[in-house]
Design brief:
510 residues; alpha+beta
């Protein structure tokens, strides 16, 4: 058993950490995370009778969402879903857990983050890590060769989460994918157009969409002298360039991955490059890169992609960036990632001019690419279904939206009630219930207070607190005259409306 004095010392230290964060007015999630650690320590200490105390908290890397947070979240989901539907996508759903073998070997070094479920006697199962592999399994299993689909659902990763940066162990993904045999780069360009539309509509701040191609990366590794068997592991290291400086990435390549210093330095020259169609043209003439057929095919497609992006009017935000690697094993062609360059919630990185325009405060907010071989891995005959898709990083976007809502004085409504049915005198509960039923039956969002004789002032205060814009007031005189007094909460203006015209008047106003 742990030494009681040691735990008490740890509690004292953790208490200081929490107090310091509160004094510095740190973000609520950061404080909550440290408070959870403090509660855990206190539970280990146990109560006076020495029994282990039960701690009420959510598991590490998860969180609850209050009504205000859910209202913001729903707004974001609606924006994304509208965009997906505007582009002609249909939706599917898949189980939250898959056979372990379905997920094994698809995620490179990230495979260690998969949650394996305890063997319940029968199938070995794992929680889904993303929505792409289950989608590929769905296509192969149902012999579907073309579909444009979106899927919004929770995924699970055994990560060490930084919840203040919008990273969790349980989180939503919003995926859009186009499966089918189509002409080069047309579906790929549409995926980038979708990212552009969503990030513009959500008004998160300035953003950049980085684009590269797995074939260009593989060709670059080959001409720089990386052995074939090290391509994927070096790719995973290059993928860390948005989180680590080049010196650290180079050190990992040489010291941990066993790459020669010369090869690492040649890679360093290329991964510092970024531009547009002009860069692709320049690299096609590059003495080393032009030796790789693979790289040349990727560069030609990048040129074609940029020509379509010009037609889609999104080239102002797209940059061809050779440092973009995306560590997942299943990508075969174009890859892309959207990062915020200014979210209006934290200072912009001063390293932007060095090609290190890492998204401030929250990391990438969307990513995806082409994965032509994934469906074939599941098909018994190895039949391939070319696919390209994008995943919107909803949790990170939500973190920013939440910060913005906190920073602005704007009140977030958590309900959609349009009118409160109120009474000005006592003994009018039955009349209120009759009227609210009429409104519900007409499809109007309405509410009553759950009291027989509420004070009129209490009813009006409820509207002010919850943002209900209108009050339909009943009194004895109104009942005699066959009218309802309609009050606008914001202006306090009142007007008598005939009971027969009330529904059409409410529909007109809301």
């Amino acid at each position: 058993m742990e030494d009681k004095a040691q735990i008490q010392e740890a509690i004292k230290f953790q208490g200081e950490v929490v107090r310091k964060l509160k004094f510095e007015k740190a973000r609520k999630e950061q404080i909550d995370e440290e408070v959870a650690k403090l509660l855990e320590l206190k539970a280990r200490l146990g109560g006076d009778d020495g029994k282990h105390q039960f701690v009420l908290k959510t598991p590490k890397g998860t969180r609850d969402y209050n009504p205000k947070q859910m209202a913001i979240r729903e707004k974001v989901f609606n924006t994304i879903t509208r965009c997906f539907k505007r582009h002609g996508a249909e939706t599917i759903d898949t189980p939250v857990f898959e056979l372990k073998e379905t997920l094994t070997g698809k995620y490179g070094e990230d495979s260690k983050l998969i949650y394996d479920l305890k063997d319940q006697g029968g199938e070995l199962l794992s929680l889904r890590y993303d929505l792409t592999v289950p989608f590929a399994r769905y296509l192969a299993m149902n012999k579907i060769t073309n579909i444009k689909r979106y899927h919004i659902a929770k995924v699970y990763r055994r990560d060490n989460p930084a919840m203040t940066r919008g990273r969790y162990r349980e989180f939503y993904q919003c995926d859009f994918d186009i499966a089918g045999q189509y002409d080069a780069m047309i579906p790929d360009a549409e995926c980038l157009k979708i990212v552009h539309e969503i990030l513009s509509e959500l008004e998160l701040g300035d953003f950049r969409i980085k684009v590269n191609d797995r074939r260009i990366l593989d060709g670059m590794f080959a001409v720089c002298g990386v052995p074939d068997d090290k391509f994927r592991t070096i790719c995973s290291t290059v993928d860390k360039l948005d989180k680590m400086p080049w010196e650290d990435v180079r050190k990992e390549m040489v010291d941990e991955k066993g790459l020669s210093e010369e090869a690492a330095d040649q890679i360093g020259e290329y991964v510092s490059l970024h531009g547009g169609m002009d860069l692709a043209e320049r690299l096609l003439q590059d003495p080393r890169m032009s030796q790789s057929k693979q790289a040349c095919a990727g560069l030609s497609d990048i040129k074609l992609l940029f020509s379509y992006l010009q037609l889609f009017q999104v080239t102002d935000k797209v940059v061809f960036d050779l440092s973009l690697a995306r560590g997942l094993d299943y990508y075969t062609g174009v890859i892309y990632e959207a990062v915020l360059t200014q979210a209006g919630v934290a200072p912009v990185s001063s390293d932007a001019q060095n090609g290190e325009e890492d998204c401030i405060s929250v990391g990438s907010v969307a990513g995806g690419g082409r994965y032509d071989g994934l469906v074939g891995m599941f098909d018994p005959k190895g039949r391939k279904v070319p696919c390209v898709g994008v995943s919107i990083g909803i949790e990170r976007i939500f973190s920013i939206m939440e910060q913005k809502a906190e920073a602005s004085a704007e009140k977030v409504r958590t309900t959609e009630v349009q009118v409160l049915v109120a009474s000005a005198q006592k003994n009018l509960l039955e009349e209120r219930l009759r009227l609210v039923t009429e409104l519900w039956n007409a499809g109007i969002k309405a509410e009553v207070m759950y009291k027989k004789n509420p004070k009129l002032l209490s009813q009006l205060q409820l509207c002010e607190e919850t943002g209900i814009p209108l009050v339909a007031i009943l009194g004895e005189q109104e009942l005699k005259d066959g009218v309802v007094k309609l009050r606008v909460v914001a202006t306090r203006e009142e007007v008598d409306i005939s009971r027969l015209d009330l529904i059409s008047e409410l529909k007109r106003r809301t």
